[in-house]
Amino acid sequence: MHPQVHPSPRHLMPITERPADIFVRGEGAWLWDAAGRRYLDWLQGWAVNALGHCPPVLAQALQAQAGLLLTPSPALHNLPSLQLAQRLCALSGLHQAWFGSTGAEANEGAIKLARKWGRRASRARRAGAWKIISFENGFHGRNLATMAASGKPGWDQLFPPQMPGFAKARLNDLASVEALVDADTVAVMLEPVQGEAGVRPATPAFLQQLRALCDERDLLLIFDEVQTGCGRLGELFAFQQVGVRPDIVTLGKGLGGGVPISAVLAAEHAAVFEPGDQGGTYSGNPLMAAASLAVLEVIAQPAFLANVRERGAQLQQGLQALSARSGLGEVRGAGLLWALELGQDRAPALVQAAREAGLLVNAARPHCLRFMPRLNSTAQEIDQGLAILGQVLAADAVALH
Ligand SMILES: Cc1ncc(COP(=O)(O)O)c(C=O)c1O
């Protein structure tokens, strides 16, 4: 493509720093820019493209549904959304689903559901409770409610006044949660692994303690599995890995494998929405639901999830070797969600150097790189990415000395 035909970015609101390259095509693990350069993609749409770019199974599902029915209206039933709700409930052991388009929308739905549950007249304790305990450095989305629920440093100063009712506890510190429970508390909400914070896992023991605390104090436990769900950690849902049953789970990202669909799943006692409580023009539209059914069909297979764990172990070992060789820090994660601590604020520079070397990675924090390859990665792709990363880290070490 000739550079002159590229439209200028000045008509696009500059909501984030982006490299100048324009990306025009994706296939599996690979992305191509307009200049024809090929990149091994370990962003995958921010842990969205579970099966890589443009998987045929997804393209076919979209094509078939696009010729049948797009959006009948959220006030009419359609087959794919009924099938998807049934499938997700069977896979998760939860009772009911509501569908949105983004992770933030699902989390806002979960917050509404918890507040509704807290207002039930039948509640013996804490009738009218509405506050939710969330966590420092947590990330739940960018609408006003989920920004307030997030513990991202500095976000409490953006777009004031902040929505009230989201006191922040510290991850893996039960006492910090207990200290915040008051008469108005209705739920505890967290990511089983804090993704945007730099892949910081809640320990299984902490999640089990939270479950016990919620049972004891009559609180709902909400897991935001927008990033950790849908196979990313090597099980379909992170809560299955730690043996803790949340009352409400939110999903997004990988649920559509590259197209916008998200979900709130609730256990029977927490599924208290009634007509008029929640909605959205595109809620449960059959195009996205059909896409999600096709993706789920693949990622729910035990052999598929076993591959996520195997490739994850390969990536972990490779990152640990690179860390040891280059004198870097901790390697954290599970499945195909990993972070490498650098020990200094080199992540943005390394992201750029990696891109120039043909590998797309993310600086989750200035001192931390994050890796989110497609879940059907091959052993060869993992080796290829590690090799590029190794070269980039070695060149960086030379440049710094
Ligand atoms: C754990 C978690 N929750 C919610 C969100 C927000 O999802 P979305 O950007 O689709 O609104 C994200 C996005 O990164 C996330 O990682």
TrEMBL record:
What Pfam families does the record point to? Aminotran_3 (PF00202)
The alphabetical list of record keywords is: Aminotransferase, Pyridoxal phosphate, Transferase
Tell me the domain of life: Bacteria
Pathway per its UniProt entry is:
Amine and polyamine biosynthesis; ectoine biosynthesis; L-ectoine from L-aspartate 4-semialdehyde: step 1/3
Q: Which GO terms describe its molecular function?
A: diaminobutyrate-2-oxoglutarate transaminase activity; identical protein binding; pyridoxal phosphate binding
The cross-references to SUPFAM superfamilies, in alphabetical order and at most eight, read: PLP-dependent transferases
Keyword Transferase among UniProt keywords: yes
The family classification in the record reads: Belongs to the class-III pyridoxal-phosphate-dependent aminotransferase family.
Protein's name in the database: Diaminobutyrate--2-oxoglutarate transaminase
Tell me which species this is from. Ideonella alba
